DNA sequence: ATTCTTACA
DNA sequence: TGTAAGTA
């Protein structure tokens, strides 16, 4: 999950963001007021934007040019955020369950090796192989 | 030189 | 949104 960290690393002062997005400082600060982006502040109170913030601002600009108002864009981005987090959660759960599965398989295999009888999981797995007459 | 806030057009 | 003023 290193790439994600990079995209969320505060890097750009507003001057760079202005060049990257071709938005004015006024606009960028205004969007921040409305919580569409949340740049962190340095000790000197200067804003630092992340790569994701820049992407976000570009999307805001695009939607604005297509005629959407700020509140609509805000709702849109919130939904997009929810969806994104849900997908991420599912991925995490999947990874956890697969790790758990491997752990159980290993345990069962070692157990079966000791007492020679079919393990519980072998019984479970047989369901996925129709050629095994049951 | 840059950025920040506030306030008014 | 743009811009001017006074700061940090």
Please describe the structure with a list of short key phrases separated by commas or semicolons.
134 residues; mainly alpha; Multidrug-efflux Transporter Regulator, Chain: A, Domain 2; two-stranded antiparallel ribbon; 6 helices; 68% helix; DNA-binding
Question: Which strand order does the major sheet show?
Answer: 1-2
Helix % is 55-70%
CATH uppermost class of one domain: Mainly Alpha
Distance between the termini: 44 Å
Q: What's the gyration radius in Å?
A: 25 Å
Strand content: under 5%
For the biggest sheet, the summary is: 2 strands, antiparallel
Gross CATH architecture of one domain: Orthogonal Bundle
Total of helices: 6
Q: Please tell me what the overall shape is.
A: elongated
Derived from helix and strand composition plus strand pairing, the structural class reads mainly alpha
Mean pLDDT: 87
Number of strands: 2
Low-confidence stretches: none
Reported by name, the CATH topology of one domain is Multidrug-efflux Transporter Regulator, Chain: A, Domain 2
**Which series of helices and strands comes N to C?**
HHHEEHHH
GO molecular function: DNA binding; DNA-binding transcription factor activity
InterPro entries: DNA-bd_dom_put_sf, MerR-type_HTH_dom, MerR_fam
Keywords: DNA-binding, Repressor, Transcription, Transcription regulation
Pfam families: MerR_1
Task: Characterise this structure.
With 134 residues, the chain is mostly helical. It has a domain at 2-68: Multidrug-efflux Transporter Regulator, Chain: A, Domain 2 (Orthogonal Bundle). 68% of the residues lie in helices and 3% in strands. It has 6 helices and 2 strands; from the N terminus they run H-H-H-E-E-H-H-H. A two-stranded antiparallel sheet has the order 1-2. The radius of gyration is 25 Å and the shape is elongated. It binds a DNA duplex (9 and 8 nucleotides) through residues 13-15, 24-27, 29-30, 44-47.
